[in-house]
Request: fold
Amino acid sequence: MSRTLPSVDMVVVGGGWSGSIIGKEMAAAGNRVVMLERGAPQWTSPDFQSPRIHDELRYNTRQHFVQNAAKETYTFRNNQDQTALPMRVLRFAIPATGLGGCGVHWSGALYRYDEVEFKMRSHYTRRYGASIFDPEITNQDWPLSYHDLEPYYDRFEKLVGASGQAGNIGGVLQKGGSPFEATRRNPYPNPPMKVPYAPALFGEAAAKLGYHPYIQPSALSTRPYINPEGLNMNACVYCGFCSDFGCEHFAKASPQVCILPAALKQPTFELRTHAHVLRVELSSDRKTARGVSYVDAAGEELFQPADAVFMCAFAINNTRLLLLSGIGAAYDPATGEGTVGRNYTHQTTGSVNLFFDEKTRLNPFMGAGAVAVTMDDFNSDNFDHGPHGFVGGGYIQIQVTGAAPISFHPTPKGSPAWGSAWKKNAATCYNRAMPIQITAASSAYRGGCLSLDPTYKDGWGQPLLRITYDYPENDVRLSAFLTEKAETIGKRMRGVIMTEPGAAKRPYSTASYQTSHLTGGAAIGMDRADSVVNRWGQSRDVPNVFVAGSTVFPQNSGWNPTNTVGAMAYWVSDAVRTRYLRQPGRLIPS
Amino acid sequence: MSHDQTRPRRRDLLSTLAVGVPTVIAGLASGSRTGDAENIKPAGGVEPPESSKGREPWLILTSDEVSALTAVMGRLIPSDSLGPGASDSGGVAFIDRQMASAYGAGDHFYSMGPFAPGAASQGYQLSFTPSQMFRIGLEKLQNHIGAGQSFADLAVADQDDLLSKMENGEIDLSPVPSAAFFGNLLSWTQQSFFADPMYGGNKNKVGWVLVGFPGAYSSYSEYVEDYGMNWQYPPTSIAEDQDMVMPNPNRGDAQ
Reply:
């Protein structure tokens, strides 16, 4: 029997970027907000401080900040004919547990989507005809445009002290930026990052080939900066312990650095850590959420009544929470009926390993999460898709996150994996090898979906989330195309003497790391037939439930999701403040 | 400062390797992984540290397991002309501590049944925690070798042959698939060699010196755009560098 707590206006599930922004915005508007974070409280100081934080075994290999698979994992199968099995060790992605969520251990790549990504179906159909889409592809338009979201991108970029060179301000192209960029109202608040050697060599070769390389925009501040919340950031020092690590320097944006202190200053905001939410409790007609049930650190089950619920857990864990709570109709890939779990996507990748001559010293340990030279010549619809027969694109780049050697000790494919020969190769290649990386769109298809597993349970006795996914042929062709382009650039780079292309191939595997950009499952869309939430992130079935994060993306683009996640958190906050609270419980008109 | 012992050696290494190996990449080894099998003495005639002689206060390993792991890890990352290998840099102590840790006991391992082999794309589906995998695997390896001798007693060439067969899943260590066991042995051996020395392996930062990783420095602001610079400072580690100060090029620390 669970104990009922005093009621509040709003409960926020999850203490990552979305939850921290929405929680702060709601509390600042005078609402009583409780944020429930399943993990531990953790702060830049003392928790992320040097030298302790520079521990690759703890933070990268043993995944200190990552969801503990022993308690909660995912089951996986490539298709409906297989029996899903649990990921007994988490490899394919690094969903976070702990205050700040993935905003602690992320890399900080901070791209906007462009106009086309929000018109995925209609744009490609208009330019190429409907047959450009394979019949299985279920990509759809967002019910909002880039221009709707632009002011919110601007806001999130200022919050995180974004660094970069704008490419297009108010329609005027800017030197040093990407000419493909959608128009923006403001430059980035901070100048672009410094460029390590390997990305510089990549940029030089890409420019020689007529492409348009630029320095990747990032959420790592490049100078002392005070954000609009009055919170301080420092300049990144390129320590090379960034992705997978917490930032000791207050330089990589995190909820801890950029917004949680402002939320906690609100008298109506309360943070509870070690609070694992089990489900949203519904009224008897299942049309209203009454609040959430959660288990606290002592194992006691509590009921927190609230007038509105914001699902801000890790990406697809929000879709699981919808399914566990019985909100909306579960998607059935056999019939195409139902929407919850539909249009699950990931991120299509590819890579080309480069090996350099003996004169080259890349010093790969001098880096930072998002420090890269990148290019969008083959992203989105920036090139003619007609001859290629696929939709979507991706960026090609060299990014130097750091080079701690448990995870970074490149040797050529097919060479010995151990013994003196391996040792010699590891010594020879460490300072002379670097991958070109490809991050590409992931198209939704009929069979790719999320559902509750019929067999396997989590540590609280609830069904695990089952992922059914393989690369659709569209994305296999996309990855092959981009990998070939990347290899051409690699071969032009000074000092490169060998290239190893690695395009994405079926079957998609969870045995190794893909990305953590898990998207879809609670798609945003035009109507009840194609979406779980409306354009304000509001549940179509239970209107006092709002869903945040990349789980609402109807498919994934060729860029990292976090800038769009942050912008959407502000977009949802504004809609709730200015529209929903006037008539709580009702669906906000589109 | 004492970096002369490290960087010049690495420079010599690269130039030495740049000749005489007819491969695509200058300096790259190819073919047999045991090409340097004769060079099993640590560079400079340094005696192996005590850890490889089984005199640690072992947390969990038996003396037979210590003996087997010392020999196995000594082949996976051998001591040779490039410097000490995994066993001679505390690698067995690393494994002992990891096996005894919460991680070794499976605190991050989803252990609920039912178990099924599954497809390769579904990842690891065995029921063994990391620690169980090592314990059972070592026992079955000893059974495979047979009574009267141990892995450590085998000739180096026979050790390598046995490890190759494990790598390819060609010997029966049931219930542990030999390739999976080998994969774990290799991955933990590399972890021991490249993790911060506070975990017991990588003594004297030999793994970091080998590849040229500087360790736990906290800033490269001043160097990141100095392309191709020759980083000559000795590596730093967490345990010994609580009060670490970055080298300052203006003080001539690099000279």
